[in-house]
Amino acid sequence: MSEVRTRFAPSPTGYLHVGGARTAIFNWLFARHHKGKFILRIEDTDQERSTDESTNAILEGMSWLGMDWDEGPFFQAKRVDIYNDHVERLLNEGKAFYCTCSPEELESKRQKALSEGKKPKYDGKCRGNTKKPDVPAAVRFLSPNEGFTVVDDLVKGRVVVENAELDDLVIRRSDGWPTYNFCVVIDDATMKMTHVIRGDDHLNNTPRQIQMYEAFGYPVPKFGHVPMILGPDKTRLSKRHGATSVMAYREMGYLPEALFNYLVRLGWSHGDQEIFSRDQLIEAFDLENVGKSAGVFNPEKLLWLNAHYIKESDNRKLDSLVAPFLEAKGFDISKGPDIEKVVVTLKERAKTVLEMADFAEFYYREDLIYDESAAAKFLKPESSSILEALVARLQGISDAEFNHDGIEKVFRDITEEKGLKLKDIAQPVRVALTGSIISPGIFEVIEVLGKGRSLKRLQKAIDFVSHKA
Q1: Mapping DSSP to helix (H, G, I), strand (E, B) and coil, where does residue 329 land?
Q2: Strand ranges for 279-369 from DSSP E
Q3: DSSP notation for 358-383
Q4: What CA–CA distance (Å, rounded) separates 45 from 187?
Q5: How far, in Å, CA of 441 to CA of 425, rounded?
């Protein structure tokens, strides 16, 4: 088998959609599995809607997901001369013709065919016009009227289309711009693509494209059309279902490994395995196990997977991700506890990096705000003696003893002396130090906050209680 060559060819008219990202991932994994090449092409012939901003957003999204490309990005807008050379070749060989039918004339014929219950296809009026006319004219591909075109699809199976069902496709508009279906064929042929893996919304285009490959004598690549992604209500995934932009997931605190893993499994299976390393995916990926039916996007499952990857992540990597979220909230982390130690206390409970940053706020607040109900329940006059005893004991232990075990011993000693249970001390202290009744383990919190910050917050709570009394 010759070297496998796949491609991802987005149109730069918006962000990188999760559906497009999954198509890119399938192509990338297929190329990497076969030790082939993955090519990036930007299909920007729609000059009115294509923007540099969208191109950059697509490249950023792919890079964030960890997909590199071996060639490109190539831009169709810079390849117009190549397309025009191929248009002229077809005209010279009698395989294309000029069409001077006006849009109004074509629409009238379309409506007439529909009213007669016929397929609204081009009627072939201008067939045979290979001499360039004096008026602006489109160029149409001369599609065969007889026989069949067969697509042996690697996902869908064999698809057979009667050529009589296909009309003479416009390959260059009257304004001189080549059309999408034509550019795709020329690009895939001249870039020597061996496999075209794309969404099944392109399947209807494939027979037309195969005819053009054959007209030029180019090898026809193998096609694999993957089902689209649906929302939980089984309609096409859109903004009403939540975020559809890859980079929106980064902004919400998802890890690229989690989204990558999730999108691969959305339509591809490998036994019952759900969680894969990148190397495992490259080793296992094939098109045989891509399902024929649409995948349903499940936000809860993605969230579960993200929580798993957070738990498994290196602490230093996490602190570099959490820091920008905290800084965006207005916190100067250089004036607070060591962020890596903060992350260690939170990674087991957070489902996203953003959630971790939310949990971490109390560590960095200069003026801690107490939850009203928590303060009313636990910062009461009888709490003062507990907080004061804790302040005295913590002041008395050395820096070397100011660790989890040393702090725990202080709490044990106080419970024994006062005849209390640990929870009787822990909750007032938790509210005093975090403002809430929910937090990581109280010994970890004190250790991470450090002696100075812990004592300052405990004293503030004592003052708060005395003012309430």
Answers
A1: coil
A2: 295-296
A3: HHHHHHH-SS----HHHHHHHSSTTH
A4: 12
A5: 13
Alpha helix positions (H), 49-161 = 52-64, 80-92, 103-115
CA separation (Å) from 23 to 44, 197, 244, 268, 431?
Answer: 18, 7, 14, 12, 49
Rounded CA-CA distance 28/406 in Å is 52
- Measure Cα distances from 271 to 15, 138, 306, 336, 345 in Å: 33, 51, 21, 47, 35
Q: What is the pLDDT of residues 350-379, one digit of tens each?
A: 999 999 999 999 999 988 999 999 999 999
Residue with tokens 């100011």: 402
60 burial class (0-12, 13-18, 19+ CB within 10 angstroms)?
middle
pTM above 0.90, yes or no: yes
Q: Which helix (H) or strand (E) holds 198?
A: strand 195-199
Q: Which residue has the tokens 């971490």?
A: 360
- Alpha-carbon distance of 352 to 309, in angstroms, equals 9
Residues 6+ apart with CB under 8 A from 330: none
List active site positions: 239
What pLDDT does residue 53 have? 93
